[in-house]
Amino acid sequence: QVQLVESGGGLVQAGGSLRLSCAASGSRYAMGWFRQAPGKEREFVATITWSDSSTYYADSVKGRFTISRDNAKNTVYLQMTSLKPDDTALYYCAAALGRKTYYKVSQYEYWGQGTQVTVSS
């Protein structure tokens, strides 16, 4: 069982930046960030492997968001820049068994409780 705790969400103006953190109780998992806006399905944002830190991003955030991890701290980060109102959502951290990059909700075994990001126009 892996516990995930997100932090770093908040209210920011359009064009601003935020950094989300996710502390995991275990290691050697592929990690991902997802988000869910009211009335919408949960969608993939970014993922990173455990072994070589390969990354993969949703087209909607490519070039603006950066996922990274510190394996010594069992923590994954999501640096978000040039934020837009459309980025407003509850952001979830997730962990997946395996060595690849994963972008489907069903591929992740463990989930955090989420942290709210609100971008004002």
The structure class reads mainly beta
Major sheet: 7 strands, mixed
Shape: globular
User: Uncertain regions: pLDDT < 50 for 5+ in a row?
Assistant: none
Task: Record keyword descriptors for this entry.
single chain; 121 residues; mainly beta; seven-stranded mixed sheet; four-stranded antiparallel sheet; 11 strands; 0% helix
Structural commentary:
This protein is an all-beta fold and 121 residues long. Helix content is 0%, strand content 49%. The chain contains no helices and 11 strands. The mean pLDDT is 95.
List the helices and strands and how they pair.
Blueprint: E1 4-7, E2 10-13, E3 18-24, E4 30-36, E5 43-48, E6 55-57, E7 65-70, E8 75-80, E9 89-96, E10 110-111, E11 115-120
Question: What's the short version?
Answer:
By secondary structure, this protein is mainly beta. The protein has strands spanning 4-7, 10-13, 18-24, 30-36, 43-48, 55-57, 65-70, 75-80, 89-96, 110-111, 115-120. Strands 2, 4, 5, 6, 9, 10 and 11 form a seven-stranded mixed sheet that branches. Strands 1-3-8-7 form a four-stranded antiparallel sheet, with no helix packed on it.
